Amino acid sequence: MKTSLNAIAAFVLVLAAATPALAHANLDHAAPAVGATVETSPDQVKIWFSSEVDPAGTSVQVLDAADKQVDKKDFKIDDKDKKIVTISLNPNLPDGTYKVVWKARGASDGHNTSGDFTFTIKLKKP
Predict the structure, then answer these.
(1) In a domain, 75, yes or no
(2) Cα–Cα distance between 93 and 81 in angstroms, integer?
């Protein structure tokens, strides 16, 4: 009986320790999609995170192959869903691979995460 109680207590402690990690704001998906090739220059990049983000610790930049920033520096967190972040892109971006660099602070746990991904524009020729 004592062994069973110890095992249950250990299991509960493991679950309790793992719970805060679930609140980290990690990249869930994006549009354009991670690694996608698109045939038109997108108007924006939209990122969905796994949990709500804190504006004070969250940022997004979109860079071209020369590391020149090609976004409008207007990133915002969606008013209705704090897991969604958007940033507008300069119009008519040319063919090329673009890197999205993001940092996010989880609103519920205050932990910082960061990463990047790319997408490619290959304009459809008439």
Answers:
(1) yes
(2) 28
